[in-house]
Amino acid sequence: MANSNLEDVPSVDLMTELLRRLKCSSKPDKRLILIGPPGSGKGTQSPIIKDEYCLCHLATGDMLRAAVAAKTPLGIKAKEAMEKGELVSDDLVVGIIDEAMKKPSCQKGFILDGFPRTVVQAQKLDEMLGKQGLKVDKVLNFAIDDAILEERITGRWIHPSSGRTYHTKFAPPKAPGVDDVSGEPLIQRKDDTAAVLKSRLEAFHKQTEPVIDYYSKQSLVANPHAEKPPKEVTVEVEKVLSQ
C-alpha cells in the first residue's frame, strides 16, 4: 500500500479505512500481554480484542521470521544466532518489538502474544517501554485447568486433505474416526497427543508462573475464566479492558 497510488484504490476501501481510523482515534491506548497455555483460547480472543481496540497483534515468533526475511539489521543478527543453533537473545526480541511498535497500525497500542516468557524478558520489556514513557496496561492470564485443556486438545481430530476439524466431544464426526464428507480416516496432530501436551504444559507452568507473579505485584493481571465458552470469555475480557 505504501507506494501504491491512492487514486487506484476503490472509494469503498478508502472510506472503510477512513471510518475505521476515525473510530479508532477515540479509543484509549492499550498495551496488552496475553498469556495462556496451548488450547486456552488466546488465539480466539486476540483478533476480537485487536479489532475492538484498534491494536496491532505482535506474535514474537512471526515477527522474528519477518525480520529475518526482510533482512533488517536485527533480523540479520537473529538469523546468525539461529544458524548457530543459539536462542535469539532477549535484547534482540525486545528490539524487534520496539521496531514493530513504530508502525502506524500500532499507534493505539499492541497485543503481545508469546512474550515475555520469563521474568528477565518482562523486565527488559518494561525498561524499553519506560524509555518511551509507556507501560503495559493489562496482562490477560488465560489460566485453565490442565484436565480441561487435555480434553479440549486431545479430542481434536483432523481430515488432512481438506483441513476439516472434529472434536470427539464438542463436534464429533457422524461416524467415529472418519470424515463426514469423504469417509476417509481422521488423524490426530502430533502436538495434540496427551504426552506432548503434558510436557508443553509443564514447561509453560514452570516458565510463565513467575511472569504472572511479576505482573501481579504491579496489579496488572486479570484472569478471565478461560474454560467458559468463547463468547462469555469475550464479554469478560471486554469488561476488564473497559475499566
TrEMBL record:
Return the InterPro entries for the record. Answer: Adenyl_kin_sub, Adenylat/UMP-CMP_kin, Adenylat_kinase_CS, Adenylate_kinase_lid-dom, P-loop_NTPase
Tell me where on the tree of life, at the top rank, the source sits.
Eukaryota
**Keyword match Nucleotide-binding:** yes
Compositional bias of kind Basic and acidic residues: 225-243
Q: Which GO terms describe its molecular function?
A: AMP kinase activity; ATP binding
- Keywords for the protein's UniProt record, in alphabetical order: Kinase, Nucleotide-binding, Transferase
What EC class does the entry list?
Answer: transferase
Stored SUPFAM superfamilies = P-loop containing nucleoside triphosphate hydrolases (SSF52540)
Instruction: Report domain Adenylate kinase active site lid positions.
Output: 156-191
The record's region (Disordered) falls at 223-243
Q: What is the documented function of this protein?
A: Catalyzes the reversible transfer of the terminal phosphate group between ATP and AMP. Plays an important role in cellular energy homeostasis and in adenine nucleotide metabolism.
**Quaternary state and interactors:** Monomer.
Q: What is this protein called?
A: adenylate kinase
Origin species: Lotus japonicus
